[in-house]
Amino acid sequence: MIDKTVADVATAVAGIPDGATVMIGGFGRAGQPVELIDALIEQGAGDLTIVNNNAGNGDVGLAALLARKRVRKIICSFPRQVDSWVFDGLYRAGEIELELVPQGNLAERIRAAGAGIGAFFTPTGVGTQLAEGKEHRTIDGREYALEYPIRADFALIGALKADRWGNVVYRETARNFGPVMASAATTTIVQVDEIVPLGSIDPETVITPGIFVDRVVAVGERRWLDGGAFVGGVDLEGEPLQDAGTEGTR
Amino acid sequence: MIDKTVADVATAVAGIPDGATVMIGGFGRAGQPVELIDALIEQGAGDLTIVNNNAGNGDVGLAALLARKRVRKIICSFPRQVDSWVFDGLYRAGEIELELVPQGNLAERIRAAGAGIGAFFTPTGVGTQLAEGKEHRTIDGREYALEYPIRADFALIGALKADRWGNVVYRETARNFGPVMASAATTTIVQVDEIVPLGSIDPETVITPGIFVDRVVAVGERRWLDGGAFVGGVDLEGEPLQDAGTEGTR
Amino acid sequence: MTTISRKDLAARIAADIPEGSYVNLGIGAPTLVANYLPEGQEIILHTENGLLGMGPAPEPGRVDPDLINAGKQAVTALAGAAYFHHADSFGMMRGGHLDVCVLGAFQVSQHGDLANWSTGAPGAIPAVGGAMDLAIGAKSVYVMTDLLTKTGDSKLVAACSYPLTGVGCVTRVYTDHAVFDVTADGFAVREAFGDNTVAGLQELTGLTLIDATSAEED
Amino acid sequence: MTTISRKDLAARIAADIPEGSYVNLGIGAPTLVANYLPEGQEIILHTENGLLGMGPAPEPGRVDPDLINAGKQAVTALAGAAYFHHADSFGMMRGGHLDVCVLGAFQVSQHGDLANWSTGAPGAIPAVGGAMDLAIGAKSVYVMTDLLTKTGDSKLVAACSYPLTGVGCVTRVYTDHAVFDVTADGFAVREAFGDNTVAGLQELTGLTLIDATSAEED
Fold first, then answer.
1. Phi and psi (nearest 5°) for B114?
2. Domain total in chain D
3. I need a surface site. Which of C106, C143, C176, D153 has the fewest CB within 10 A?
4. Is residue B218 over pLDDT 50?
5. D192 CB contacts (<8 Å, ≥6 apart)?
6. CA of A45 to nearest chain D CA: how many angstroms apart?
């Protein structure tokens, strides 16, 4: 029997070594593998290269990983945010390397890694600083720059549900980088609200087939859902609204 | 109000001019836009370049279009089949041009056209006749050949259902080339069993978003389905089984 | 000289977007355009984090952290919406499938070059997000901006001094003073608001401008 | 010398495929391998026309024209299956996500080159399908073939004379006489069936073969 489910997040992130390249899914709170990131902080791997759209917010999650000097380099499209003070400080101090990639090139480079494409010509960024030094070519009258795949040793993905074969379904815009990152990592680790029985996901609706997934861990239903239905009562970070009268635990 | 539905297949294929490049979806009977192909035969456009996985079977559909000398060139991966006598004859007589493309390169080149990629390096075909004369490059120790996008003026796609915005859902392996072809044509025409009300397709399950679709036409439910449920009783071409006692009309 | 409000400018842009268009409204001020799209007309909004058919902000208490726009604000999904992943979403843009994209700008050059991601200030932390993809990501790229910076410099320039976001990508610039088309011969004043004149705009921008104010609307 | 039947060869290949593998069985004879996969073990079959979790042929009368394999035969989908489009499916192969691919061959060279799509006969209509994608599309590429052609020529060769499908792509060749690994030093006989010997196989193939029959099973 194939069973990719693991008991807890510590087991899910076991074996990530120092020096690994780790993709982390999510765009904002949507699709962010919150519990897996916390487990990675706990786990201890350092000298990491992180691939994410951003470079951490506030003092939690990815920012906390950065604050512990566990990240050597970050590949992302948008590090600077109002609350990205941890990254900002490290960057200004020269303690972290940044590879800035336009968001669509980032997604496409990750897809290329998953799909076995050696390199591709993209129009995005041509004529800008971010294409400087790259190979350029005019094709059919349009100018393109050559971009290479971004691969990872591990991917940490947040999704809605999965079965024991690792077939994954996302929810709304939480899908974002999940499917391409899952395809581009040697070991893909997915956290879901719930692991469902094999056969209960309609094969037409599988977004990430299990072939791309190595470990699946259930972390419980997110606060804004109840039995799979949206109930709200949270802010954008998923924290309870002040007036909602809920208990406020994470 | 956006309404991409058209009344009949003749309206759906209206305006395809002589000399057009036309992608035709489908792999075997699955996803084959049978009624749209018949309408194209009726419509009369000639000097066409056809992009399809195959080059027609028997004497119907694409083969019938070929038999009427309406196709100048075909871009496909597998023209030679046991019943591809129409293509075979034209090819041997030098009356049709063939661009043979490995199936995965075909799909990826079509995707590249839809996704604005200028060209890409693929490992498929390297060292074979089909990569001769193409630009080669070794990247990270592996050899690749450079492939260019395949665009079309029109795409004819067969699918299960759509709404008036052109959001499309396929069925099983009938999905095949539909999504990439829909993205790579200036005008994408989709035939479906049924047009459903806007909002009745779960946004999580839309496979081809309406942005890629220009015209949608309902052609009635396929014989092996009844009210959307599979009932069988047909052969691989969708024709009634001899012993099934059905009426045998198309 | 007359300047129109940001809201009026958003309404002005909205009036130029035909029914049935697929539109990306970028981040910040351009998102205001959504509020002025004509009632009862169907215009389909794209957000590059994976949604077509984006609807307005949710009711209080109905914020869904899984359903946000590219500015990481809570949104809703209309009937007819579709979700997709990032590579598909940016493929949609790069592949030229969007009709209109509305963006902010630091500078736009008379050749249609756009600078909107970095002021190039030393020590600034660079961040580009989807700006470069958006800049090349639509059949028509509209810029929404004040004509002048807070210090009175023209944002329409002969050549951008700030780092570029995209080359020759801007179709039209909607400012608080006037609407400018980017043409092969430089900026053409398409519409001057209130008491603005082509001569006055030439003075403000320091550029030679084409007078297209009496041109046919397209 | 002993030759084993095609069914026995299919069973022999099936025995080498571990549980949990993602496997593509090509077209023709290799599809027989599906019939011999161990009962009760989960091995996930891929068909490049867009399905993972392919099941056996349907019952009579239950043929579904929408549900076929790459050989355009009717199949079924198991619980746990997933559908996807052609670009995603071939991305899966090209990206190296399949564990095993089993293919037929006209010739395999001692360097692992595969020829299986064209005999290069003049006047023949070329057709490649997914052959070249399959040849490079798995971590292990197994070939299933008779050792000799009908005219007695060895299909294992020093260098392919037929047009290539892929270069250096074959991992192992399962023939009716023996199982051969492709190594940096040429073919190694991993297992000789019945009364076949390395010396006898050398004679049949005309190649210098490495004797690996006493090597540890992996």
1. -70, -30
2. 1
3. D153
4. yes
5. D177, D178, D198, D200, D201, D213
6. 26
Contact partners, residue B10, CB within 8 Å, separation at least 6: B39, B42, B43
Closest-CA distance of chain C to residue A43, Å: 27
Q: Is A215 helix (H, G, I), strand (E, B) or coil?
A: strand
C86 touches chain A (CB under 8 A): yes
State which residues form the domain around D160.
Answer: 6-217
The CATH number of whichever domain residue D206 belongs to comes to: 3.40.1080.10
Cα B111 to the chain's mean position, in Å?
13
Indicate the residue of C46, C83, C96 with minimum beta-carbon distance to B204: C83
Q: Do chains C and D touch (3 or more CB pairs under 8 A)?
A: no
Give, as one character, the DSSP assignment of residue B173.
G
Tell me if D107 is assigned to some domain. yes
pLDDT in tens, A233-244: 999 999 999 764
Q: How far apart are the C-alpha atoms of D98 and D111, rounded to whole Å?
A: 22
Residue D1 placed within a domain: no
| Listed residue (D117, D151, D155) closest to D133, CA to CA | D117
* Interchain CB contact of A189 with C (< 8 Å): no
- pTM of the predicted structure, to 2 decimals: 0.97
Number of Cβ pairs < 8 A linking chain B and chain C: 66
Distance from CA of A65 to the nearest CA of D (A): 30
Residue/partner pairs of C146-154 with CB below 8 Å, 24 or more apart: C146/C3, C146/C175, C146/C176, C147/C3, C147/C175, C147/C176, C147/C177, C147/C178, C147/C201, C147/C204, C147/C205, C148/C204, C154/C204, C154/C205, C154/C206, C154/C207
- Tens digits of residue pLDDT in A170-199: 999 999 999 999 999 999 999 999 999 999
User: C125 lies in a domain?
Assistant: yes
In which element (H, E) is residue D4 found? none
Q: What is the CA angle B171-B173-B178, rounded to 5?
A: 75
Q: What H or E segment, with its residue span, contains residue C7?
A: helix C6-15
Closest Cβ opposite residue A118 in set B123, B169, B170 = B123
Confirm or reject contact between A206 and chain D (CB < 8 A).
yes
Q: Which tens digits make up the pLDDT trace of A92-147?
A: 999 999 999 999 999 999 999 999 999 999 999 999 999 999 999 999 999 999 99
Taking the CA atoms of chain B, what radius of gyration do you get in angstroms?
19
* B195 interface with C at CB cutoff 8 Å: no
Contact A165 D53 (CB under 8 A): yes
- List, in order of start, the domains of chain A with CATH numbers: 9-115+149-219 (3.40.1080.10)
Q: Cα separation of D123 and D120, whole Å?
A: 9
Whole-number Å distance between alpha carbons of A8 and A195? 12
What residues of A are in contact with residue B171 (Cβ under 8 Å)? 204
DSSP string, C106-146: SEEETT--EE-S----TTPPP--TTHHHHHTSSSEEEEEE-
The rounded mean pLDDT for chain B is 95
The residue among C48, C137, C131, C51 whose CA lies nearest residue C99 is C137
Closest CA to D25 of D123, D134, D153: D134
Residues on chain D touching B172 (C-beta within 8 angstroms): 51, 64, 66-67, 77, 83
Cα separation, A111 vs B234, in Å, equals 39
**Residue B247 pLDDT exceeds 50:** no
| Distance in angstroms (rounded) separating the CA atoms of residues A144 and A123 | 4
Residues B104-156: pLDDT tens digits? Answer: 999 999 999 999 999 999 999 999 999 999 999 999 999 999 999 999 999 99
Cβ neighbourhood burial of A188 (10 Å; 0-12, 13-18, 19+): buried
Cβ <8 Å between B28 and D65: yes
Chain C nearest C-alpha distance from B108 (Å): 13
* pLDDT per position as a tens digit, D99-153: 999 999 999 999 999 999 998 888 889 999 999 999 998 999 999 999 999 999 9
CB of A24 within 8 A of CB of A50? yes
